[in-house]
Amino acid sequence: LCIWQQNLNTSLVVQHSLLNSPIAQDWDIVALQEPHINSLKNSILSPYFHAVYPTTHFSKPDLTSHAITLVSKSFDTNSWQQIMFPSLDVMVIQLQGLFGQCTIFNIYNNCLLTDTQEALALFLEQELMNLHPSAVINWAIVTSANDHMIWLRDFNRHNPLWDEDSNTQLFTNQYLNTAQPLLDILADYGMVLALPKSLPTLQSSSSKNDTSH
Q: What share of the chain is helix, strand, coil (3-state, %, to 5)?
């Protein structure tokens, strides 16, 4: 499974560049955070993908979605489905195959708010057994070999677990306290960071300092 994840900062130019680049055909899943959304609530798409918007995207015309997932048209449409999630900032799909089930969350969390991570925690608490009926829950950790969960996320949070150690300005009590609920969710569901610690995922527009989100 080949996945590309990127925060586009609502840039039409960047989104065009990404989806029209040769590498676009190499990916099975493209998870976009802060995509460009036009006045008709549509986004720039690609002929190689099915576009999946948040389930509340068109029912809340005054609000903007911050997560869109593109699924390759090479996938059999009977092998995946969208899972309803009550947020404009989270997109959930579930793949099924010989590997079992894989639920993929595309998550954008506003840097000033905690609504998304709170909604994620509540959703997992209420729906996990429906999403993965064969999963064994032992002290809130999923331990089934046939059930998989991937979070493609831009949580806008900082912590020494993933940030470069030299970015000490990001490790104030305020930042660490803000990140703690996220760490609790990660621990509750046995999530493991796929990217190595200190890998830059954002360059500050003001300081030009590389950070991880």
A: 25, 30, 50
CA distance 175 to 132: 33
Q: What is this structure's pTM? A: 0.84
Residues linked to residue 121 through DSSP beta bridges, in sequence order? none
CA atoms within 13 A on the CB side of 88: 15
Cα 49 to chain centroid, rounded:
17
Spell out the SS3 assignment of 20-68: CCHHHHHCCEEEEECCCECCCCCECCCCCEEEECCCCCCCCCCCCCCEE
CA distance 90 to 148: 18
Residue with the bigger pLDDT between 13 and 170: it is 13
User: Is the predicted pLDDT of residue 200 greater than 70, yes or no?
Assistant: no
C-alpha pair distances (Å), 134 with each of 81, 97, 131, 146, 148:
18, 15, 9, 8, 11
**Cα 133 off chain centre by:** 23
* Residue whose entry in the numeric block shows the structure tokens 């008709």: 40
Indicate if the alpha-carbon torsion angle 109, 147, 50, 58 is positive or negative. Answer: negative
For the stretch 61-103, pLDDT in tens is: 788 999 999 999 999 999 999 999 999 999 999 999 888 889 9
